[in-house]
Design a protein that fits this description.
283 residues; alpha/beta; six-stranded mixed beta sheet; 13 helices; elongated
């Protein structure tokens, strides 16, 4: 079977989940490889996401590892057997791999919770706002790289704009709503767009006001994506070295606790909507 030179985050997550099954059963890779009629090297490649696994072998692996969680097994089979291209594949070779990984993770999520402090969250950005943010990068991006980044960001919004939108809840700081990344017109259009999404009923926005006491999370940017089963929830942390994908149980628990703690500093959804409405009137 052909080796993947650059496995996606989703492919690597599948491999790590299969490794979890094997390790939970206390089986060495060599033994499981033998049970599957494979080699230790191939088993390592599967667990690293650099080689695919068939549905038959995946089910045999789950049986050998005494996994009785049928919902988890079916979810893993779905990950292993999906072959259709997503819209994000149009950007391979155009944008860095992480852009595709984030879009793919959002596409498969059953729910999305997010905290973004410095900017309006990407899923809620207008084209002009996104262009202003990307244009601020140094060295300055040429139009040939700027345009696909803006286009990609707009296409990500499909998860909250389609006929069956994914439940989306985001926390945004008052600072991000007030700062003019471009001009007054862009800021006003951005605030109105957020209000429109709130009115549609599938998006919940919570605002952290600048006068909130006891909030020390100004450097936090993270996303929590619900999986088809809780074991396949995914976390994303945005840091100085880029986006980190999180799938370990302990780290996901920590991420949920941090999300809940940040939420304690927010206005409730109704007060947040009214707050954004007042800001739009002030511009």
């Amino acid at each position: 079977m052909t080796m993947r030179n650059q496995p996606t985050a989703r492919q690597m997550r599948l491999g790590s989940e299969l490794r979890k099954l094997r390790e939970a059963a206390g089986l060495p890779a060599k033994e499981v490889a033998g049970l599957l009629g494979s080699s230790s090297a191939h088993m390592s490649q599967i667990e690293a996401g650099t080689s695919a696994i068939s549905e038959e072998r995946l089910r045999r692996l789950a049986a050998h590892c005494a996994c009785a969680d049928e919902e988890l097994i079916e979810a893993l089979v779905a990950m292993a057997t999906e072959r259709s291209r997503g819209w994000w594949d149009d950007y391979r070779g155009v944008l860095p791999q992480v852009h595709m990984d984030v879009a793919e993770a959002e596409h498969h999520a059953t729910s999305v919770r997010e905290v973004v402090i410095p900017y309006v969250p990407g899923l809620l950005q207008t084209p002009d706002y996104a262009r202003a943010v990307f244009s601020y990068m140094r060295p300055e991006l040429p139009e040939s790289e700027l345009a696909p980044r803006v286009e990609h960001r707009m296409r990500r919004r499909s998860i909250i704009e389609g006929e069956a939108p994914t439940p989306y809840e985001t926390i945004v700081h008052e600072f991000a709503l007030r700062v003019r990344v471009a001009d007054r017109r862009t800021s006003l259009a951005q605030l109105r767009w957020i209000l429109d999404q709130i009115e549609r009923g599938h998006t919940t926005v919570r605002v952290i006001p600048t006068d909130q006491d006891g909030f020390a999370g100004a450097g936090i940017s993270m996303m929590y994506l619900g999986g088809p089963v809780p074991e396949l929830d995914t976390g994303l942390r945005d840091g100085p070295t880029g986006v980190t994908f999180i799938g370990a149980d302990a780290q996901l628990k920590q991420l949920r606790m941090l999300l809940n703690r940040v939420q304690e500093a927010t206005l409730d959804p109704t007060a947040s909507r009214d707050f954004i409405h007042r800001l739009s009137k002030e511009l």
